[in-house]
Design brief:
The chain is elongated and about 115 Å long. The chain has eight helices and 27 strands. By secondary structure, it is mostly beta strands.
Length: 613
């Protein structure tokens, strides 16, 4: 009996020891294809209820029987099954088909787009063209279904018009909320952030976006995520690109090439009366001093009420040397421009080929618990309007540094510094003006449109005696208000200097698989100084003759205007996210998961402006 008892005890001990040996501890790490850790990945023992999630550094620990398999999955990655081992590293490949189905919501948690009641789009860096787009907002044109994103002027540095929802008059416009790595920044930051350092852009549309991002997100949300350093050896990336933008007149749009003015037998446009220094019947030409055709009775239509031999009353009793002569039904616009007055393509004289050059140097790397990325880039874009109208030059310094201080606690610092110089002329694309620093308006280009009133027999590019361009180019009753934009180039200059600094700090602490704390603080600071100079025009004959000049002064002796803007925006967010999975956490056969968010959001804006004349 004693022997049987001893054998039973021995057998029990062997069975117990075998049972323990069959469920060893499995330590592992989940990474992406680049070796970067994936936090929050689900690790499940196949065929059992046993499972866990990976920590911030991608590591996990669980018990699994010998010969068991682990099913590893994460949002945006393909599911992978591996054999359970003492120290296993699981590399997950990105699920290309699912990436566009995943977005980061207002809580900062990656969520399947199918679970959200709002319209969202995720655009990866591969779909954001670096050339010829010089800014993020320009790169988004045509990339978001249903959104209205269009370029307003084509002027370098100008913001595009973005409508993600309908026009909202209560909010004062249609501009969406812009977030940079989870922190709000001014809408104008879209034109200064380095496009080469954007990892992806998430765009949220729909009225329900306000439920995730607050009232500020009522017009939709554009969330920008910058690139992080790649773990492993240090990488150095150098890129350079050059683009030329050309005005394409695909419809051959232009002003009329045929006219109905009074001509001689050779087709030369002639003077109807002795006026402006011309004898009646003499061919007309442009005055070399004023750049106009002088005389109020010189230029005339072929027919009018004053033409001898009329057999019937002409509507309006018109005279052919006035603007009302066009009402005479006998006038036909079928004559080509010949002789001293040739046809000029004004659109070709205004729109020029514009070049854009981008240069960038990036250094990045990292280890198991840290990563860094440092980039210096430069973008130089010339104005597409007129000759010698200046340029926009922007230099960016961007850094993204992250580190794990201790298990579960990570910090990250993201810095964006931009310096911009703009030398385009006032009224031709120069930034500045009262209230311009708010960022709600683009640079003025109103001085360009005067050429639309210029008659095609006058060249906008031709200069008068002295080598300057005339302020106006008139010809009797036509070319009224035909301001020459090249006059602005001759007698004005501008220098805009702008500094943009965006600093983001983030701290994240994953207490356990169910509870995560996150805090973000961001501050954006813009300092801009725009100086417009109007030179002395008192010796310009056309300015004196027409009593018109460039500048705001009471005379044409010149002026200087100085605009100084400062805009500071601060945003602090803190949240706690608690998640539960009834099957994983409680062992219940109930397919229920919960997510609880407790958040605090603080925002402060400060604007200052000083204008001098």
């Amino acid at each position: 009996m004693r022997k049987k008892l001893l054998w039973s005890l021995l057998a029990s001990c062997l069975f117990f020891g075998t049972a323990l040996a069959q469920n060893p501890t499995v330590n592992g790490r989940v990474t992406d294809e680049k070796g970067d850790p994936i936090s929050g990945a689900s690790v499940q023992v196949k065929g059992t209820k046993t499972g866990t999630t990976s920590n911030n550094d991608g590591t996990f620990t669980l018990k699994a029987a010998n010969g068991a398999s682990l099913v590893v999955s994460a949002v945006g990655y393909e599911v992978k099954t591996v054999a359970a081992a003492a120290n296993v590293t699981v590399k997950l490949a990105a699920d290309v088909s699912a990436l566009s189905e995943v977005v980061v919501t207002g809580s900062g948690v990656a969520t399947s787009r199918k679970k959200l009641g709002i319209s969202t789009e995720s655009i990866g860096s591969a779909k954001l063209p670096i050339v010829p787009a010089a800014s993020i907002d320009q790169a988004l044109i045509g990339k978001i279904p249903g959104a209205q994103i269009s370029s307003v002027s084509g002027n370098p540095g100008d913001q595009v018009n973005i409508v993600l929802r309908g026009i909202n008059t209560v909010q004062g416009g249609t501009r969406p909320l812009v977030l940079l790595d989870g922190v709000e920044v001014p809408f104008t930051s879209l034109t200064t952030i380095d496009l080469t350092q954007v990892d992806r852009v998430e765009v949220v549309q729909g009225a329900a976006s306000a439920s995730l991002y607050g009232a500020q997100g009522a017009n939709g949300v554009i969330q920008i995520f910058t690139k992080k350093g790649q773990k492993g050896k240090i990488n150095v990336n150098v890129s350079s690109s050059y683009a030329v933008s050309t005005f394409i007149n695909s419809g051959n749009f232009g002003k009329a090439k045929l006219h109905g003015y009074l001509t001689d037998a050779s087709g030369n446009i002639i003077s109807a009366n002795a006026s402006g220094g011309f004898a009646a019947g003499a061919p007309l030409n442009v005055d070399p001093v004023l750049g106009s055709i002088l005389g109020s009775g010189s230029l005339a239509y072929t027919y009018g009420s004053n033409v001898p031999g009329l057999t019937s009353t002409i509507p309006g009793l018109t005279q052919n040397y006035t603007r009302y002569g066009i009402l005479d039904p006998r006038n036909n616009f079928n004559k080509p421009y010949v002789g001293a007055l040739q046809y000029h393509d004004h659109f070709a004289e205004i729109f020029q080929d514009a070049t854009t050059m981008n240069n960038s140097v990036n250094i990045n790397g990292g280890g198991d618990k840290n990563d860094f990325s440092l980039t210096i880039s430069n973008n130089h874009s010339n104005s597409p309007f007129l000759r010698n109208n200046g340029y926009l030059d922007r230099t960016n310094i961007t850094s993204n540094i992250g580190a794990e201080i201790f298990k579960g606690f990570t910090i990250r610092s993201i810095t964006n510094i931009a310096y911009s110089e703009n030398t385009m002329h006032p009224g031709l694309g120069a930034p500045g003006g009262i209230g311009f620093g708010y960022g709600t308006q683009n640079a003025g280009v109103g001085q360009i449109y005067g050429f639309l009133n210029t008659s095609p027999f006058l060249s906008i590019k031709d200069t008068v005696l002295g080598g300057k361009h005339p302020v106006y180019q008139k010809a009797s009753f036509v070319s009224v208000n035909a301001g020459n934009p090249y006059y602005q180039v001759d007698y004005t200059s501008a220098m805009s200097k702008r500094y943009d600094i965006i600093q983001n700090f983030e701290a994240n602490y994953k207490l356990n698989k169910n509870l995560t704390f996150n805090a973000k603080y961001g501050i954006s600071y813009k300092n801009e100084n725009d100086v417009w100079t109007y030179y002395n025009q008192s010796l310009d004959e056309s300015s004196n003759y027409y009593e018109s000049w460039a500048g705001p002064g009471a005379d044409n002796t010149g002026a200087i205007t100085n605009y100084q803007y400062n805009l500071t925006k601060q945003n602090f967010t803190a949240n706690m996210v608690g998640t539960t999975d009834f099957q994983r956490d409680f062992g219940l056969k109930i397919p229920i998961t919960t997510s609880t968010l407790v958040a605090f959001d603080y925002r402060k804006n400060q604007y200052k402006e000083l204008d001098g004349y």
